Amino acid sequence: MAVALLEGREIDDLDGGTDENSRYKSLSHGPAPEVVDVATADAGVKLAVERVTECVKEPEISGGTICVMAPTKKLRDAVGEQLISSGITVSAIEVDAADTASAEAVRVATMHRAKGA
User: Fold this and answer.
1) Where does the pLDDT of residue 115 fall: very low under 50, low under 70, confident under 90, or very high at 90 and above?
2) CA distances (Å), origin 82, targets 77, 85, 86
């Protein structure tokens, strides 16, 4: 799903170059993500925090681990900061660190990181 969202777009490899989206394979599987269009970035952050808060209160909604994907690190971090200020444990998915967070932590990631690069 994450790779499909990037189809036909230039991809920053986060090292000063560009990347291609071929040869990627997802290491995790589950229900299809929900893709929502919003008018502004702030509205997207607010909606993500509302949805995650609902899922944390009622785990049967999410069905397991929760991950919020954002198109940029800035938006990923904004969602993470708002979740933390709401009392929710957050783990940011980074390129140079293994995901060792507990199952209860909400993952936040850029779409690039979520696709497995």
Assistant:
1) low
2) 9, 5, 6
